[in-house]
Amino acid sequence: MSLLSIENLCLSINALKILKNVSLEVAKGEIVAITGESGSGKSLTAFSVMQLLPRGTAATGSIKLDGTELLNTPDANMCKLRGNDIGMVFQEPMTALNPLMSIGDQVMETILRPRLLIADEPTTALDVTTQAQIIDLLKDLVQDFGMGLLMITHDLAVVSNMADRIVVMRRGEVVETGETKTLFANMQHDYTKALFAASAHEVTLPNNIPSDALLIVKDAVRDYPKPRTKLFAPREYTRAVNAVSFTLKKGERIGLVGESGCGKSTLTRAILGLEPLQGGSITAFGQEVGPDMPPALRSGLQVVFQDPYGSFNPRHKVARIITEPFHLLPDPPRGQERKNRISEALIAVGLHPSDADKYIHAFSGGQRQRIAIARALIINPELIIFDEAVSALDVSIRAQILDLIAELTQTHELSYLFISHDLSVVRTITDRVLVMKDGKIVEDGETRQVFNNPHHPYTASLIAAAPTLPDVKALADAPD
Question: What predicted TM-score, i.e. pTM, was given to this entire model?
């Protein structure tokens, strides 16, 4: 008997059909991965098992845990099962954790021997070494306690190295399922093939010849004060950025990688003039970055953030949002010229001019990121900082955004600093890469050279920890 058995699960919310005849099984000691893009029904399938569904939900079919039907179980009984027999790791820990409980108590809630553990995108937005540690932890829990693990993710490289079986979902339906190696060796459904192709997508960057320096970072130092342990004790400091130096020239596409806490974000804020330096200097377009930098000169440097929705005002329409940088111009366009600039920016990122009159909630995650890029482009900057700009996107949307960025480097003569923990993305979208550790740049070189022949042990450890897609040809040719 399977530990978890889902048969012909159909789910609708206010008469809108979401899940359609979903069937899958998880055995004790088995890792089953559900993969697919946003909106495929992955998370709602997991929430159906936990019976954590929104109001207006109607479900039919069967969900059994060790033979016990869960679909019609009273909530009082489900409360006893949740945490004890079924544990869940949610995608966003900051909203899932209770700030009034200790970390130890909350960790024990999840791993105190549940029979079934559901992990919903547990490695999204993690750096590669932390991701590898989380994957190893989950595999050890399954092996040591014999629990079943239902892993939900859009990252095929992750599941290829940990899942026993894969379930591919699209638009609320299971389109393909099978043992992991067999599925990769003989993908049947066009959607599965498209997901794999998007995961392995490589960008073709136009050939650029670097010229004048746009950004010069020289011996940059940024310290943060630590809390005082005694009333009159001298103040101690943490050095987040430690004598960092590099130059980005016009036409260059530079990547910045490193683990969480290495200083990437602090350095980014300093480059944008949002963090003061305690030493060294940052110069953009020949002038030192800081509060005294003229707005017209500052307009040459723009940023695209990781979470576009969080950086937008939801009360404003797209036209207002993407014209925010106009305040940096001494004579911003008005009237028809303003409308023309809005239309040009939206068309440049693959959207329609009519999208200018819509609110941001009407767009998908990939479309919102395109709008964020349009906002950065609208004043024709020479340099854009992409701060984890594709880390939370589905693989097919990510491929489209990366192609768009590559195209813009040619059509808009764009240079950029691309900050990411995803080494597979940095490898394909940059000419040169900087590796940061403990506030220092430990390696700097041409991207292909750094990835193929890293000189610093830390760089080698990052590359080794990054998950990779399987060689499907080798799997297909391998004897049974």
Answer: 0.85
